[in-house]
Design goal:
18 helices; disordered N terminus; 3 domains; 55% helix
Length: 341
């Protein structure tokens, strides 16, 4: 197998070891800055190669893999830096999947595992994960979910790989609780595709963390987890009520990203039930703001109640900039009281 130009070498930590080390420091939360900077940062100071177009992306990676799998004498070390300088897609790619299917399954799985666990270059680690994403062996779940903690880069393929495996939904849930930003989008969307029933309770109470990017999946959560059935019950818990408020607010503001309330068929039923549940609970600042930004008639009586206004006023006292935005937009539109008084 002919050698490609190698990446700059040095005493670098593997991407997997980097993710594991950070996870040990932050076991129950997303990694700070999604794990960046990565150990191979110096090798990528000039940026990564750009896309060659949807039809060509992944083709060069597939050619390298075909040469490798076609050579019985090729060593795993030949792939260590073979993809440096090549555009490596971070999502599932038909060219790479086809190259994996042309080779012997055991060899594909073996090199995929090795690249994910030992690669000091993000490009090779990504290819290794792409190879594992074509398989369904359950033993790889801990390996995949750990590299998936670097979720902005590895989240799409980790989600794809876990979706194909027995026990994958549980691993996706584990990963969802430890991702944010774009990584969270990839994992939540995978849960909505492959595990809405097993993951339903979690999705209905925890999927939306308030990030702007939640707009891409809020409508999917509402529909696949059957929010309308859950929130219209009499026996709902505070977690469900508060997450529903956050989800409805996001669907109010997510035009151009995902499903909005206007296109959500049971919107009126869900809004009515949610407002009724709020009316039987004590006011909080976030309950008030989420209901007000959602801005439908269902909440108006509640938003004008003295105890709810007082809770909002106390919250705004700590954030005058947010108060100004709220007063100039939401409060004026709904005819709400003056919160600066």
């Amino acid at each position: 197998m002919s050698a490609r130009k190698s990446a700059p070498q040095g005493a670098r930590l593997s991407l997997f070891a980097h993710a594991l080390r950070l996870h040990q420091r932050h076991p129950d939360e997303p990694l700070p800055r999604d794990g960046e900077p990565f150990p191979d940062e110096a090798a990528h100071q000039g940026g990564l190669p750009g896309s060659r177009g949807p039809r060509r992306d992944g083709a060069e990676v597939a050619e390298i893999l075909d040469r490798y799998f076609g050579d019985p004498s090729a060593s795993p070390a030949d792939l260590a830096d073979a993809f440096h300088g090549v555009h490596v897609p971070i999502h599932r790619n038909d060219h790479i999947a086809a190259a994996a299917l042309r080779a012997k399954r055991k060899r594909v799985r073996r090199i995929g595992r090795r690249l994910v666990r030992h690669s000091t270059d993000r490009c090779s680690a990504t290819v290794g994960l792409a190879l594992l994403a074509t398989d369904w062996h359950e033993d790889d779940v801990p390996l995949i979910r750990t590299i998936g903690l670097l979720s902005n880069r590895f989240g799409p393929l980790a989600a794809e790989a876990l979706s194909r495996r027995p026990g994958g939904v549980a691993a996706l849930l584990w990963l969802a609780q430890r991702t944010s930003g774009w990584g969270r989008v990839y994992v939540i969307e995978a849960l909505c595709r492959s595990g809405p029933y097993e993951a339903r309770d979690w999705l209905l109470r925890n999927a939306c963390d308030g990030d702007f990017l939640n707009g891409y999946f809020a409508g999917k959560v509402a529909t696949t987890a059957h929010l309308h059935e859950a929130i219209t019950r009499d026996d709902v818990d505070d977690e469900l009520v508060d997450h529903t408020g956050r989800l409805l607010r996001i669907m109010t503001e997510c035009g151009g990203m995902g499903m909005t309330l206007h296109h959500y068929p049971p919107a009126d039923q869900v809004l009515s039930a949610h407002a009724a549940h709020l009316a039987r609970r004590p006011p909080t600042f976030y309950r008030y703001v989420n209901a007000a930004v959602t801005g439908t008639d269902h909440y108006l009586e509640l938003l004008r109640r003295p105890d709810w206004v007082a809770a909002a006023r106390a919250g705004f006292a700590d954030d005058p900039d947010y108060l100004k935005w709220f007063a100039d937009t939401v409060a004026v539109r709904l005819g709400l009281p003056d919160f600066s008084a």
